[in-house]
């Protein structure tokens, strides 16, 4: 059987459009806890966070044929999660505390006008855990995630074999999963 | 202006009326937004992740279409004998098929089914059970439902309930799924693919009654005072304590109950006939009659032991089993002799190509896999 953990995001997305359940499962496993942590730290309401992610993943599955992931799966998920989190901020009940914070920022802060830079910063924010990885591993991971290149392409760029790249991604994901505290779950799959 | 402008900005951002600059403000603020929480309990994330995938899986499972096939004719022409338990033999010389064409026909190989099912509680709540499901699954009216280390679903009494109205749960396997269950009275049930069993969560009535669609093997806990009754579309099976298998799929023309141990009474739901079975007996109900024949009972429960076992079985019946277990559709090309029968035993835990290759060794049939469809060719 194929080990979907070794597939790059690009490959998973291709399989997703074909309606492959296992690929969708791998995407869910790869990103759920990462997105959860990010969202929960900004919106510490368990049910809200669960709902946000449920809607997001259901949306991806239901729209797998028409989804355009021009900037890659990771960016898509981070941006979609952020937008949904901000959307919840806007609800009457919890608006006040967030509005205060935004107001403070409006009064003192500076905005980043370039959309692409904001997405990049968002990526760094979500993937904080990735920053502590060994440099080569991080490079491979970032190229796969954020430049959405295939293993073949990354191998060519870094002058290593696609197999090595594959292995490094595999190890990286393993380390990340341990950091994210979800390793027990992954072992069972 | 104070909080007003921030609120207005959030509102505009969310309904899509914010200008580029306003969007930049909100999104930049979001980046600088302090973490409100330092650490999250990993157990919480794990639990929510599991639940999330369960719910998603339900969406995937619900969209799997079930297809029905026409009844297939009778008569056997070629009889092939199984040897060594794993290979199909024929009296013709066995030639390995051309590798290159095989590689093409099987370029889209499919993995076998696995332990998965959907549990529907009496409240209508659905819980998807997969390999990773662990521990307590639900608690209802003093009954605790857990998944054991051996991967079976177990019902246990938590408190004595004085409420005698039966509460029903349903365990349902999709195509490509199977599951094991221990009922509150200790009866063990193995549920095969594309099957469903409806049962009360506590057996407080005079009779222990369950309903089955599809196939299941039962090891009924003996209780002389409370007969155990299984309702199916064409047969009702009444037992005291015994081991037996019921095969009652909608797309199969017959319902078969095979007894391995003890004694059961099988009644037709179509007419008043009933038969008492002894071990090794199989009660078959077709559209018009109920009759008993002596069979190799082990063959009927091969599925629960991890095998496909066929004895003089027609291709249509074999392919229905493959369709249920590998979650595929079957298509017959012109010229396939549906009356040919096959015998043999093969593991259910190989990829589908392994099973098909064994059947192809007989040279009587050939297969091609395209997506989730297997076409049967001459």
Compact description:
The complex is a heterodimer of chains A (189) and B (378). Chain A is an all-alpha fold.
CATH architecture of the largest domain in chain B: Sandwich
> What number is the mean pLDDT of chain A?
76
Overall pLDDT score of chain B: 78
CATH class of the largest domain in chain B: Mainly Beta
**Ends of chain B: how far apart?**
80 Å
Q: Radius of gyration of chain B, rounded?
A: 26 Å
Q: Which pair of protein chains has the largest interface, and what are the residue counts?
A: A-B, 57 and 45 residues
Q: Categorize the overall geometry of chain A.
A: globular
Query: Radius of gyration of chain A, rounded?
Result: 17 Å
Helix content of chain A: over 70%
Number of helices of chain B: 7
What form of chain B results from the Cα inertia axes?
globular
Structure, described:
Chain B: It comes from Pedobacter steynii. Chain B: Residues 170-265 form the FecR protein domain. Chain B: This is FecR protein. The complex is a heterodimer of chains A (189) and B (378). Chain A has 189 residues and is mostly helical. Chain A has one domain (4-187). Chain A is 72% helix and 0% strand. Chain A is built from ten helices and no strands. In chain A, helix 2 (21-42) runs antiparallel to helix 3 (46-62), helix 7 (135-146) crosses helix 9 and helix 8 packs across helix 9 (162-179). Chain A is globular. With 378 residues, chain B is α+β, with helices and mostly antiparallel strands. Chain B folds into three domains: 2-32, no CATH class; 69-110 and 305-377, 3-Layer(bab) Sandwich (Phage tail protein beta-alpha-beta fold), CATH 3.55.50; 114-295, Jelly Rolls. Helix content of chain B is 21%, strand content 35%. In chain B, the strands form four sheets. Chain B has a 19-stranded mixed sheet that branches. The radius of gyration of chain B is 26 Å and the shape is globular. Chain B starts with a helix and ends with a strand.
